[in-house]
Predict the structure.
Amino acid sequence: MSLLEINGLRLAMRSFDGETEVLNGVDLAVGENAIAGVVGETGSGKSLTGLSISRLVPTPPGRYLGGTIRFDGQDLMTASEEEMRRLRGRQIGMIFQDPTTNLNPAFRISTQMVDIALNVAKSDPELIGIQARSSRRARRVAARQRCVDLLGQVGISDPDTRIDAYPHTFSGGMRQRVLIAMALIGQPRLLIADEPTTALDVSVQAQVLELMSSFVRERDLTMIFITHNIGVVAQLCTDVSVMNAGRVVESGDVRKVLKNPEDSYTKELLSAVMTRDTPRPARNRAAAGAVA
Ligand SMILES: Nc1ncnc2c1ncn2[C@@H]1O[C@H](COP(=O)(O)OP(=O)(O)O)[C@@H](O)[C@H]1O
Ligand SMILES: [Mg+2]
């Protein structure tokens, strides 16, 4: 059975010129321990699909017209807000594209991380290695230690000191590492990463991708990786779903889909990458350069 299963999800968004259906029946199944790429061009509905899983699309302006989302057998469309709050962070973690909008510049990283850890510990004290009856001070110390450990694990050097820095003192890549650490505090089973490396330099992007794939391999994690970049999918993912105009048009094992795409849109997406990135004979290279 899949850990996550979306069937026929339809979502309309209201804007000043009326309501438009932006998800037109999304089907998506993600198996346990998969790294499931969701790829498609801007506006195809990737982010709204990811946000729907954690039920973070505000309604209004959003309105669900149909479909089901099941996580580990539980129906998320009908779950109460209270249940969703419990699931978010604990079972389902999220990482977004732009670290600057997700780290509050006014607070030290320690403050922001420890808050999350203390919150998580309310329902599961063992996560930070304390007993339910521990004192407030003991909780705080344990929560901070858990955050320091995680920062070390995502490659922040000297985490014991740097945890007390403000976000702006970190580079973009380092901030994204902090966000990954934050998403891991609750040991989620499913991590949804929406364009987490798009804002980063190519070399930093490669490091962060490597980090994320090692996390999935080492910790019983499942990841949905949303990106417009099919090259990243090829590098990182085990499975892929291709989205176009609010629908998944093709999905399956990543090697199979990338090698033998069946859908015409997938073919188009792939041929665009080929013409841009694949080395070609010298004769054509000059021509391609002239066009670019
Ligand atoms: N808050 C919103 N109000 C109205 N339309 C929206 C809103 N958010 C997204 N949309 C529309 O929904 C479609 C899908 O958006 P999105 O899921 O963000 O696409 P992607 O992540 O693939 O770029 C787009 O056409 C976008 O304009
Ligand atoms: Mg998006």
